[in-house]
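Quick one:
INPUT:
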């Protein structure tokens, strides 16, 4: 799976979970600061991604931006 495909999936899930404008969800967008996500929102997004990609994510991995999420998902998929 390409980085762009992962980003599209992360973006769609983030837009659905946070009810934000898709234009706001960029690789550089900070999940909590720019997208106004709280801890429960982040937890929900992580759960959706785990289900979608069949991987294990750890919210304590220093993930701050959408790009961090994409990179972490890609790393998990590469290790499968």
């Amino acid at each position: 799976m390409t980085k762009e495909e992962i980003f599209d999936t992360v973006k769609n899930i983030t837009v659905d979970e946070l009810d934000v404008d898709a234009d706001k969800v960029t690789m550089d967008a900070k999940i909590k600061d720019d997208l106004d996500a709280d801890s429960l929102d982040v937890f929900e997004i992580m759960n959706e991604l785990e289900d979608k990609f069949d991987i294990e994510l750890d919210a304590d991995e220093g993930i701050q931006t959408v790009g961090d999420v994409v990179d972490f998902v890609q790393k998990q998929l590469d290790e499968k």
